[in-house]
Amino acid sequence: MKILEDKILKEGKVFPGNVLKVDSFLNHQIDVELIDRLGEVFYEKYKNKNITKVLTIEASGIAIACATARLLEVPVVFAKKTQSLNIGNDVYVTRVSSFTHGRDYDVTVSRNYLTKEDIVLLVDDFLAIGNAMKGLIEICDQAGAGIAGIGICIEKGFQKGGADLRQMGYDVTSLAIVDGMEDDGTINFREQEE
Ligand code: 5GP
Q1: Each residue of 49-88: pLDDT tens digit?
Q2: Which phi and psi (to 5°) does residue 116 adopt?
Q3: Which residues have a Cβ under 8 Å from the Cβ of 141 and sit 6 or more positions away?
Q4: What secondary structure letter does DSSP report for 194?
Q5: Among the four residues 16, 43, 69, 105, which has the most C-beta atoms within 10 Å?
Q6: Distance CA 65, CA 90 (A)
Q7: Residue nearest to atom 20 of ligand 1 (CA)
Q8: pTM above 0.85?
Q9: DSSP conformation letters of 13-32
Q10: DSSP summary character for residue 83
């Protein structure tokens, strides 16, 4: 999506370890107008899929999830990252290993907000090696919920998450796919149909 790629080129910063920082519009400050436009793309793609919930993971997925869910007229549920201590029986839980942050954490979703009646659109800000998304899939599996698709703002196509999820049969829509980043700040995008 051209407006997102232009924004990444203008404001994104490449950090060591293949980390792309987009704090100025997605991960710290939020460009609400831009995020609303990204949400419209997910809405157009998935509006006929009978989606009942948009599921994301805190914190940076929440904005794009809300932009999408507002148009779909369904609630957003965000999985919470926890420290494992007091997890009761009233939640679905799975463990996610974060490559970016170099640690593992549990994610939980209350059984009250996800059930086998739900058809879910999974949404997140980044897709890298895919552990966060696979964690959300595991939560949906525990709930017996269906998964209509996966919407990603920025996929790092040189990491394996996108290929894994597509191979698993999921319909992954990534609004920008970064195929390479150089230390000098150069960012290359995969060509996609608008
Ligand atoms: P994965 O589990 O696919 O490796 O990583 C996905 C999660 O890690 C996303 O929820 C995102 O918060 C974070 N992440 C992964 N790579 C990047 C990156 O290059 N930049 C930023 N800002 N976050 C990233």
Answers
A1: 999 999 999 999 999 999 999 999 999 999 999 876 666 7
A2: -70, -10
A3: none
A4: -
A5: 69
A6: 24
A7: 20
A8: yes
A9: EEETTTEEE-IIIIISS--H
A10: -
Separation between Cα atoms, residue 30 and residue 33, nearest integer Å: 9
List Cβ neighbours of 18 (8 Å cut-off, separation of 6 or more): 128, 156, 158, 159, 181
Measured CA to CA, the distance from residue 121 to residue 40 in angstroms comes to 14
- With tokens 């957003």, the residue in question is 76
Burial class (CB in 10 A: 0-12, 13-18, 19+), 133: buried
Nearest CA to ligand 1 atom 14: 126
Ligand 1 pocket test: pick from 100, 150, 177 the residue with the most ligand atoms within 8 Å of its Cβ: 100
